[in-house]
Amino acid sequence: MMALATVEKGCVMSNRDLEHYQKMIDGDKESLEAIYDKYEKLLYSFVIKLSSDPSLAEEVLQEVFIKLWTHKAKYDETKGKFSSWIVTITRYTAIDIIRAKKNESVSLEEETDMPEQQGDSVEDLVEWKEKSSEVRKAIDQLSDDQQKIVHLFYFQGCSQSKIAEECDLPLGTVKGRLRLALKHLKKHISTAEGGIRDA
Amino acid sequence: MRECEKVLDYFNHELTEKEREEFERHLASCDECREEIEELQLLTEDLPFSTEPVDPPEGMKDRVLGAVFAEKESDSQENNVVSFEERRKEETEPKEPQPKRNNQRWVMRGLAAALTLSLLGNILVLTGGDEEVANEPPAVDSTDIVNQRVQLQGEATDASAIAAMIRQNDKNLLTLQAEQLDQLQGDEVYQVWLLEGDKPYRAGTFVANENGEGAVAYSMDDLPADADWDAVAISKEPDATSETPQGDVILSSSL
Predict the structure, then answer these.
(1) Per-residue model confidence (pLDDT) at position B82
(2) pLDDT tier at B141 (50, 70, 90 boundaries)?
(3) Which of A76, A126, B136, B157 has the most CB atoms around it within 10 Å of its CB?
(4) Residues of the domain holding B24
């Protein structure tokens, strides 16, 4: 029963996203604002995790919403959930901007003043609230090496050769190790969800 | 490095522009690589939700949305195609105090994400009667059926194009409409190519009008009838005689 309720809620949520998105395409500012309100905190927090730089996070969000508003990034509902799409666009925007800054030889490696992370906050985004502990638990179940490779690849956006160097692996085995770690992760998440959402 | 070994670096935008173009050509014909990228996308989709919440700073929403809405207005005021070169000039202008989009190039880079997704099967196959089909130029005294319709995208350009393969009275037509094209110089033309594997076939030539718009309707009768097309692409050519692409491919889509 729980699982079914979750699935139904998920459907309602993504329909509302789609509705907002379609109105936004037609130039409706309030719909863009609704999307912004819903995803602001997730995307902001996500970029900080990617970049360790709060000042950059605002710039990235601005770029992401410019892409939405000017139709430079287009969502196609047949390819997946809106939430997955908008975090993907955000990740690439962040990766590209971080790389641009690095090329300008501004080091982002040193952590700047990080805003305080909240303890147990209630986020507006139901999906985030539902998934966060599951995904964190699933990550915790990976071995240290697996966590490291996932972190380097996904959150740091490292190149294959950088990952090989950091993990002390031959270049040719990086992809296999990464896929294995990600598959383990997905399995743990699916198990936690009762496998319903992946069905 | 073999092309198939570049999947991770492609996924993370680590390839140079040239490498990326090469890889995308490879991707059009390598199911395995496409599947791997799709798989990476799927396997990583939950990871953002592991993020610990951080409160955005005061006033961020007003600043961000203010800049976003200003963007659209200035875009429509320009009303003309801004060439890549002109945008580059903008980049070198002094930065304003507010966090501002400081680098148009990185918007372009970001589009590679959109392109990645489009290569993963953002292909609309319409069966006719759809409102989007109604936008195609009307044909006289025949019932046209759209067999396949794709949107072409490119990284280093604002241009976009829609291509459709149309069945018309037992003949196959390729139609293509493009907009926001850069202006051509001298004898330059835009050339449409259909690719089977790595082999390009000419599939129509056109020029951009002063509004940066161009279109082509090409009879596919002269092309191999049994060809299994992998991709459609547009390149800028020095003149209308190129038998293979001499200039850069500016827009493409898998089929």
Answers:
(1) 36
(2) low
(3) B157
(4) 3-49
The residue whose two tokens read 């003949």 is B171
- Token digits for A155? 């959150």
Name the residue among B9, B39, B68 with its Cβ closest to that of A62: B68
CATH code of the domain in which B153 resides: 2.60.40
User: Is residue A141 within 8 Å of residue A149, measured between CB atoms?
Assistant: no
Give residue-wise pLDDT tens across range B20-60: 999 999 999 999 999 999 999 999 999 999 999 999 999 99
Whether residue B241 lies inside any domain: the answer is: yes
What CATH code would you report for A131-199? 1.10.10.10
H or E element at residue A5 = helix A2-25
Among A187, A139, A47, CA closest to B99: A47
Residue B203 inside a domain? The answer is yes
Torsion, Cα B41 B46 B48 B54, to 10 degrees, reads: 170
Q: A58–B60: do the CB atoms touch at under 8 Å?
A: yes
Whether A79 and B121 lie within 8 Å, measured CB to CB = yes
Buried b (16+ CB within 10 A) or exposed e, B217-228: bbebeebeeeee
User: A1-106 and A131-199 share one CATH topology?
Assistant: no
B99: burial class by Cβ within 10 Å (0-12, 13-18, 19+)?
buried
- Please tell me the predicted confidence (pLDDT) of residue B74: 56
Number of structural domains chain B divides into: 2
pLDDT tens, residue by residue, B184-224: 888 888 899 988 887 888 898 888 888 888 888 888 888 88
d(CA B235, CA B248): 5
Domains of chain A, by residue range, sit at: 1-106, 131-199
Domain A1-106, architecture per CATH = Orthogonal Bundle (1.10)
* Displacement of CA A175 from its chain's centroid (Å): 20
Q: For residues B185 and B124, give the distance between their C-alpha atoms in angstroms, rounded to a whole number.
A: 34
Least confident of A109-113, A189-193, B34-38: A109-113
Closest CA to B183 of B157, B219, B201: B157
CB B50, CB A132: distance < 8 Å = yes
Task: Select from B7, B49, B117 the Cβ nearest to the Cβ of A128.
Answer: B49
Nearest residue in chain B measured CA to CA from A57:
B56
Mean pLDDT, residues A31-49: 95
Q: Model ipTM?
A: 0.83
Q: Please give the backbone phi and psi of residue B201, each rounded to the nearest 5 degrees, phi first.
A: -120, 135
User: Are residues B139 and B33 both part of a single domain?
Assistant: no
Is there a contact between A63 and B107 if contact means CB atoms under 8 Å apart?
yes
